[in-house]
Amino acid sequence: MKWLTAIIKPFTLDDVRQALSEAGVAGMTVTEVKGFGRQHGHTELYRGAEYVVDFLPKLKIEVAVADEQLEQAIEAISGAARTGKIGDGKIFVSELEQAIRIRTMEVDTDAL
Amino acid sequence: MRFERRVTGNGERGAGRLLALGALLASVALPAWGQAAAPAHIDSGDTAWMLTATALVLLMTIPGLALFYGGMVRAKNLLSVLMQCFAITAMVTVLWIVYGYSLAFSTEGMQAGSIGWHSIIGGLDRAMLAGLKPDSRYQTVPEAVFVMFQMTFAIITPALIVGAYAERMKFSAMLWFSGLWLTFVYLPVAHMVWSGPGSLLGDLGVLDFAGGTVVHINAGIAGLVACLVIGKRRGFPHVPMPPHNLGYTVVGASLLWLGWFGFNAGSAVAANGSAGMAMLVTQIATAAAALGWLVAEWVVHGRPSVLGIVSGAVAGLVAVTPAAGTAGPGGSLVLGFAAGVVCFFSATRLKHKFGYDDSLDVFGVHAVAGILGGLLTGPLASPALGGFGTVTSLWGQLWIQAKGVGFTIAWSAVLSFVLLKLIDKTLGLRVDDEQEMVGLDIALHEEKAYNLS
Known about the structure:
Strand content of chain A: 35-45%
Number of domains of chain A: 1
Strand order of the largest sheet of chain B: 1-2
Largest interface: A-B, 7 and 18 residues
Oligomer: heterodimer
Order of helices and strands of chain A: EHEEEEHE
Number of domains of chain B: 1
Strand order of the largest sheet of chain A: 2-5-1-6
Radius of gyration of chain A: 17 Å
CATH class of chain B: Mainly Alpha
Number of helices of chain B: 16
Distance between the termini of chain A: 10 Å
CATH topology of chain B: Ammonium transporter fold
CATH architecture of chain B: Orthogonal Bundle
């Protein structure tokens, strides 16, 4: 199993959620986060006072998938979150040792 | 405002009465002002308009100014600014009836052309509104309405200063300062300009239709002095202090614009041609100033901003205030546009260049636009420049205006400084560092504007 952590632009969330559903991913967790990558921040100007905003609002989505779903899930997220402009975000993939559904105590892919 | 009323408003109305009634109504002779005579009865049309105008001017402070300022501070200080405006409204109301109206508008001991103690400050013969009855009359409106109308001016003036010391003054110090400032700065200046024959600046011939000197220069200069005496906010200018809700600021500025029709057109103290013209030039100057700031900002910063366009509108409202009774449409267009451009630079450059923390630009907008308007009111009153005043010498009137403006600046600066220092030495002006960091809402009022979650 793999654990996918993706940082995306907030407005792409609906498309990403839909693409993941179509790829057979049954659940996801979304967190509002702030950060910067190559996009850096932006400036705001109020009556001549300039503020550099370093951290931009992003969404972090976390998804657990079976190994064979990995490629589809990556395509779903990247396809839906891509605008082609700087700041589209990243996907990080890591190994997932175990998954347990609390209600039934099913494990691993049965629990996803 | 009485000056204008007598020169133009009453003249027109007097003529109208003559035609309509075919008889000269009992009139009061006003030797110092010559041409005019007020009809000696209460006019229902004038009264209806002045009741309305009074409500409009109150709307300027609560909620207009309160929201305009409130949106510009950080979320942790929103309530403190709303509270300051609201508390000033209540406190000044009480002070106004106890002695304010009397010190500003009592004509006891005043004589046209002679300068004495009562040229500077009124007597106490009208304290607690002594002698006021339902049929007491001020020109053609009940005196009770005039008392109320003028009260709303006395309310907004100290409230304007709030923007300069926002986010760091103790609430108690703010109350003391506002009360003392009203007493020693506002009331004398209002008396000197508006109390009629025998008043210091009125006799000088200073034109101030609706309060450019009395309200805006007065408050703007006090704001500059206040922000210098109290000092910068912690972290200014390195820590970002962006406005927390510009939506409030836009709503507030819009209410100011609306309420200003009461302020300027109401200053005719009649429902007449002078009031109509004041309303028209107010709209023109405000729109021109909003565009002036917009254009200047677009050229200089490459982007038009929301805070910019509404700040420009306020600058235009301020600039046209003294000129509203005398400037023509063309003059107010030029005056407004100039105010927008000049205030763009004073609010965005001057402050950062000199490093004072006039938090919400009371000086950069009110004093600067007030001075510009106060000066240009002179020449723009001349028929040669499309004005409706009796001004014949452009430079002569400009010089008279400059004397009025200069006097107000000096009066406000010196006395504001003394009052602030006095309060700082006794009570302390500033909240402590921790209170400032937590925010005045929690620290002083134990409330939060936003309980989200």
